């Protein structure tokens, strides 16, 4: 059974964070790798490669443990021998989606599992931006792998802008003529098009 170790000292504004696992990971460079649940095959490959390369460079990979991009990123970071931080949209004792139960268990036991939801708290779809807010707050940068103009991932992009965190958009998304959202974020001086993993580390210094 998953269980929490209590409240984290690090919070996103007035959001309390509950966590279980290796708290020291929050002291490392942390990069969120996020995007759509309905990821394309190319998006899955991009998320996996980026997470693997970040892990090999000693960066903790952060994601939300949803289907799609989140799963690809966290699995790849772990398989590469790196560290993973999962910020979930349920209390720590629940796994959603159910198919990610074993992955969540692995992260709880060997990495770090976080949630802005207390045990017993009811969670609705409208609460999920709170999870994105936490991910943006604990990450030095966020990378969006794939996202439509109506994707919930854009909540995290907005939080990056509000908090002054780096936001990277992969080149294929930034140059997709069917999307309108990248242009509005690329006007921000701390938003950039991602072409290589090294671009992130150079920006973070």
Description:
By secondary structure, the protein is of the alpha/beta class. Helix content is 38%, strand content 17%. The protein contains eight helices and eight strands; from the N terminus they run ββαβαβαβαβαβααβα. The chain has helices at 41-56, 69-79, 101-110, 128-138, 153-163, 171-174, 181-186, 197-204, and strands at 18-21, 30-34, 60-63, 84-87, 112-115, 141-144, 166-170, 191-194. The protein has an eight-stranded mixed β-sheet with strand order 1-5-4-3-2-6-7-8, sandwiched between helices. α4 (128-138) crosses α5 (153-163). The N and C termini lie far apart (39 Å). Mean pLDDT is 91; it is low at 1-11.
How do you describe this structure in short?
The chain is of the alpha/beta class.
Q: Top keywords for this entry?
A:
alpha/beta, 8-stranded mixed sheet, 8 strands
Determine the structural class based on helices, strands and strand pairing. alpha/beta
N to C succession of SSEs: EEHEHEHEHEHEHHEH
Q: What is the terminal separation in angstroms?
A: 39 Å
Strand arrangement, largest sheet?
1-5-4-3-2-6-7-8
As a whole number of angstroms, the C-alpha radius of gyration is 15 Å
Q: What is the count of helical runs? A: 8
Low-confidence stretches: 1-11
Shape: globular
Number of strands: 8
The percent range for helix content is: 25-40%
Proportion of strand residues: 15-25%
Mean pLDDT figure: 91
Main β sheet profile: 8 strands, mixed
């Amino acid at each position: 059974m998953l269980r929490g170790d209590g409240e984290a000292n690090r919070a996103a504004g007035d959001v309390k964070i509950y966590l279980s696992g290796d708290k020291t990971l929050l002291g490392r460079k942390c990069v969120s790798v996020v995007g759509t649940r309905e990821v394309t095959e190319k998006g899955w490959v991009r998320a996996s490669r980026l997470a693997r390369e970040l892990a090999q460079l000693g960066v903790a990979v952060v994601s939300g443990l949803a289907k799609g991009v989140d799963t690809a990123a966290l699995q790849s970071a772990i398989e590469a021998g790196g560290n993973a931080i999962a910020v979930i949209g349920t209390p720590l004792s629940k796994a959603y989606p159910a198919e990610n139960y074993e992955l969540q268990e692995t992260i709880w036991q060997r990495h770090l599992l976080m949630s802005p939801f207390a045990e017993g708290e009811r969670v609705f779809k409208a609460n999920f931006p709170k999870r994105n807010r936490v991910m943006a707050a604990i990450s030095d940068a966020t990378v969006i792998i794939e996202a439509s103009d109506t994707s919930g991932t854009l909540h995290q992009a907005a939080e990056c802008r509000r908090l002054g965190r780096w936001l990277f958009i992969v080149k294929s998304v930034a140059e997709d003529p069917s999307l309108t959202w990248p242009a509005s974020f690329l006007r921000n001086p701390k938003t950039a098009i991602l072409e290589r993993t090294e671009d992130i580390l150079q920006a973070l210094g």
